[in-house]
Write a structure and sequence with these properties.
Layout: E1 5-16, E2 19-29, E3 34-40, H1 47-63, E4 73-78, H2 83-88, E5 97-101, H3 109-130
Parallel strand pairs: 3-4, 4-5
Antiparallel strand pairs: 1-2, 2-3
């Protein structure tokens, strides 16, 4: 995960008047001083997934964040990402919600190199559209 991450919980339960919610993975980064929420999806990202993560972040900021903590960050790990979702949803321009693609097998060196180039291009497009 990187430096500063501490594991908080798996399937962390948050109860509100809307019902019960379970966040797949919760970490706290003591360097960034913020909670880091991860939602795991076995399908391509959808606008419902983005909305759910946005709600988790807002609920976590309201119910769990304490004075001195920075805003919560959310990461959607999906089996497939979407350029359109990154371009047209709240993901575009968000400093708190990110999408990433994960693989259930170990890719070859060539596949990794190709994927790095694809992700660089997506990032360039997002930066161009941001301006």
């Amino acid at each position: 995960m990187g430096k500063g991450f501490a594991f908080v919980g798996r399937q962390q339960h948050i109860r509100t008047d809307m019902g019960d919610f379970y966040i797949d993975l919760v970490f706290y980064n003591y360097i960034l001083k913020c909670f880091f929420l991860i939602d795991l999806k076995t399908t391509q990202i959808t606008h419902q997934d983005v909305g759910q993560m946005d709600m988790y972040i807002r609920m976590y900021d309201s119910l769990k964040r304490t004075e001195g903590d920075n805003p919560t960050i959310g990461l959607l790990l999906c089996s497939d990402t979407s350029d359109d979702m990154a371009r047209y949803s709240v993901l575009h321009g968000s400093d708190q919600i990110f999408q990433a693609k994960y693989l259930t097998y170990l890719p070859s060196k060539e596949e990794l190199a190709r994927e790095i180039e694809i992700q660089k291009e997506i990032f360039r497009q997002q930066q161009t559209n941001k301006d």
